[in-house]
Amino acid sequence: MEVEDGGVVKVWNYIDNKLVEPTTGEYMDVVCPSTNGVIGQVGISASEDVEMAVASAKKAFESWSQLTIKARATVLLKFHALVRDNAMDLAECIVKENGKNITEALADVAKGNETVEYACSMPLVAAGRTLQVSSNVECMDVRKPLGVVASIVPFNFPFMVPMWTLPIALVMGNTMILKPSEKVPLTMYKVTSLLQQAGVPPGVVNLLQGTKEVVNSIIDHPDITAVTFVGSSPVAKIVKERCNGLNKRCTALGGAKNHLVALEDCSVDMAANDIVVSFAGCAGQRCMAASVLLTIRENPTLIDKIVEIASKIQPGTQSKQMGPVIDIHSKSKILKYIADSESSGAKVLLDGRSWNNGENWIGPTILLHTNKDDKALHEEIFGPVLSIYSVSSWKEAVEMENANPFGNAACIYTTNGGNAQWFLSRFRASMLGVNIGIPVPREPFSFGGLYGTRSKYGDMDITGDGAMEFFSNRFKITSKWPAPILDEPTTNIAPTDHANFAGRM
Fold first, then answer.
1. Fewest CB within 10 A of the end CB: N or C in the chain?
2. Is 287 assigned a catalytic role?
3. Does pTM top 0.70 for this prediction?
4. Choosing from 120, 243, 250, 287, which is the catalytic residue?
5. Separation CA 496–CA 268 (nearest Å)
């Protein structure tokens, strides 16, 4: 990364622990969402850059994979400490290039570092199993790394999402090609210096900047054995199908349309606060954000409380404020959903369009729908918009949740455990919450939507024990050894004849 005379940062690739200018010599602007000012220029890589990165990673794999898992975890333990010590610096970079408020940015770093901490524990959790299965026959399994692996990550969590895969892949013995979002390349560049300080050898982690061409080259490269992707559903499907065509392991996570169901017995204050955090936190730019609230019949007390809390949120990047969406294209998409809903009869209870300043700011927006076919009730908006719809029964609430093409998250708000279990057993999403509108599982539990929906394409989950499984192969070994022939029989030794037995040892 070089700084030009105007103070604009040029972000290069990071290959073999060195900064390497992309072979194309081409760049695109990195824009601060809060101001629309240019804060950097990120390189556009091509297939030639992928070849260099893979060659470096392939060479590094030979020695990195031969280290013990404890030795690799020790390096990541040093990295964990460095991330903790540099958390504010990383968070300020996230605020600048992503637009989160500072508290959310610090949480981005902290949650990512939790996965690093989990990876440091893997010498304990990744141990294989051994079992005597028959007379003189023993079965065991051992895990071995795949080789060179790749992760393609989105803009919405510049640190946390890369950490969903990178530390686990490394401790399992793989080497990594990481492709950050071209919208937020600065955070992971800073991370590379921390990886160096921690003692990660050259070639073990390589960063490639760019757009579609470099992504396709990463997927197609014959020496990259596995690919993870997090992003939109249409692209996730393409990535998965492209990997499958090459018989390559893939986990590709897509979008979401998460449903919250509020029963009449819910704790209004707790539910309202949690719902606002879920739909408006990080400007709604997370796949676990609430997007649809279903109330059983009308619940004006709860709805009024949600509107009251959300209306107090102010624009900005300080704690308790809400930052902008990532760019003008995202904002335009959000505005269209609001306008379409309003034109079809939805009531705008809280109008975030009042924040409109010609840039990327849009405030929390709450829509009360009367038309079940409104697009905002069914399509991913990826912004701070909550759609509310009243259903007549529990059955109708479950039918609406089950009918959506995504399968990421769902939540039930109630003070009755039996009520909660009724919904948990019927929800279709794979990450479920009880009075928690952002039900993100933490390690050792894995993150991932329901397979076969638009939320998840591919093989396994992306964090925790799912990632440990993804980034390793199990080798099963069955052994039989002849029984030893003893020089003298020992059958006459009495169990209590300790002195005699000790003399024979």
1. C
2. yes
3. yes
4. 287
5. 69
